[in-house]
TrEMBL record:
Species name: Dorcoceras hygrometricum
PANTHER family in the record: OS01G0757700 PROTEIN
InterPro entries: EMB1417-like, PPR_rpt, TPR-like_helical_dom_sf
Keyword terms: Repeat
Key word Nucleotide-binding present: no
Region called Disordered, residue ranges: 248-277
Bias type Acidic residues, positions: 248-263
Source organism superkingdom: Eukaryota
Protein name from the UniProt record: Pentatricopeptide repeat-containing protein
Any Pfam family: PPR
The keyword Transmembrane is annotated on this UniProt entry: no
Amino acid sequence: MLCLRHSLATFCIGLESVQFSKNSNRNIVQCGARGPRPRYPRVWKTKKRIGTISKSLKLVECIKGLSNVKEEVYGALDSFVAWDLEFPLITVKKALKTLENEKEWKRIVQVTKWMLSKGQGRTMGSYYTLLNALAEDGRLDEAEALWGTLFSENLESMPRIFFQRMISIYYHSDMHDKMFEIFADMEELGVRPNIPIVNMVGDVFKKLDMMDKYQKLNRKYPPQRWEYRYIKGKRIKVRAKYLGTTDDDDGEVSATDKEDDSDLKDHTDNPEITVDECIEVDNIPASSSFPCS
């Protein structure tokens, strides 16, 4: 008789082959349904991220070789930020700082005006950068127009550094009348002048032989013996003559001043000592305020 049975080895191999094929199909279906879908990189995203420092240097190199034509500079700046999702404000600020260190005043004016025209960076720091660049570039009319606009809009909140800059501009330009007007505005608004402002106004009084006003100015705003500085995160009083010229003609520091300075360093190295215990104040009330220059 004809036997239709398979051998045991052949039957086992067949079961294994069927079981393997089922598992392979199951894995393929599970991977396609529940596995992670393939992700493709976005078109506007790059794998290599460029830092703000290198990007700001690239921006400076991009506009350095251009002419002073407004359309050319603005077009280069627009093409530089065209592919950014957000306005690169930090990059532009660092580029302005680099241009300021290189004394590229025309480029600073162009970049700052372009940034302000985009509605970005409208802060007092940006306006001060523009005012300083206009003054250094010799564009006094534009600097006065900018000062008038800022002063009218921020009458009671104008920072003292703007008054100091305008007084310095008029002082070096020998425009004493406008200098006195700004100083009178400071006194009317209650803004206390710092040491450089008092020195410039007093020097003009000396040049014009107004010794009575010079003496009155010194009585009203005497030179400060102490100023506040931040040393290791602590607000500490230091002697004001260390920050400028010394009282001695030879420029040497006396022994008592050296001892005070050494005591100051010892106290700042010890974190357990408070600010009030750090320096003894001689005949100065605790409620008196000294502005930081």
